[in-house]
Amino acid sequence: MCTSIISNRKKTIVGWNLDILDMEYQVIAEDDKVYIAVYDEKEGWLPLFGAGARGDFVAMPTCWPFDDRSNPKSTDSQNIIMLDIDLLLGRKTLDELKKIAEHQDISSVPGVTFQAQLSDREGNVLQIIPGQGYRYKEKPLYSVLTNFSPFKGDSEKHPWMGLDRYEKATAMLEAAEDTFDVEDCFEILKQTSQTVCPTVVSMVFDVGENTVYWCENREWEKIQKKVMIRVSTGGSGR
């Protein structure tokens, strides 16, 4: 269970709650990226969520209920996890991922529907739900993704779908002032944080300042900060 939000007002601010249970994770802050790595028994530590100094942000909530259309259909299917890692590490741009979503089949891992909400420095948003489709939003006022498919809405019920979190975050963003900033984003993350499947990292990205803020285990008074160094390498679309 996770919550991803993007706000485009005077500033572009991105927020992310990572809610996981019984999984190893670590927050890694490097000069050109800040990301959350999750341990996989086969692959080791995978950089799955976070911000890059180019201005991109990767959020990849699980989609509930599972939809078997997200299973790989062939060896030619593009894996959403690998695409997201490529964006996070600066090997592909959001524009390149948009073209892949337009023209190629994107799959998740067998038995789990991972979806993505991706953004760039301009505040453009790309949502990908493997097997169902994609949505591209050119600098929307705000965008929210929790754990249900935006293509299905509440037509299929699941206890982990996070419709309540979606509605709360959407209402807060709808009512937000033009001065919406890091502190306001943390308040939304606080209001949508979880304890049963606990929120282990809450992260906010001030895109214009190239600065990432985060706290762990809902310790809102212990926020850490990293100013990233912009780089020009990686990807061919910028």
Strand order of the largest sheet: 3-4-5-6-9-10-11
Provide mean pLDDT, rounded: 94
Main sheet properties: 7 strands, antiparallel
CA radius of gyration: 16 Å
Q: Name the shape in a single word.
A: globular
Task: Figure out the total of helices.
Answer: 4
Query: What is the string of helix and strand elements?
Result: EEEEEEEHHEEEEEHHEEE
Separation of termini? Answer: 33 Å
Total DSSP E strands: 15
Q: Which regions are unreliable across 5 or more consecutive residues at pLDDT < 50?
A: 233-238
> What is the structural class?
alpha+beta
| Assembly annotation | single chain
State the helical fraction.
Answer: 10-25%
The percent range for strand residues is 25-35%
What does the model show?
By secondary structure, this protein is of the alpha+beta class. Helix content is 17%, strand content 34%. It has four helices and 15 strands. The strands form three sheets. A seven-stranded antiparallel sheet has the order 3-4-5-6-9-10-11, with helices on one face. A six-stranded antiparallel sheet has the order 12-1-2-13-14-15, with helices on one face. It is globular.
Topology:
Layout: E1 2-8, E2 12-19, E3 25-30, E4 33-40, E5 44-52, E6 57-59, E7 78-79, H1 80-88, H2 94-103, E8 106-107, E9 116-119, E10 125-129, E11 133-137, E12 142-145, H3 163-174, H4 182-191, E13 199-206, E14 211-216, E15 224-227
Parallel strand pairs: 7-8
Antiparallel strand pairs: 1-2, 1-12, 2-13, 3-4, 4-5, 5-6, 6-9, 9-10, 10-11, 13-14, 14-15
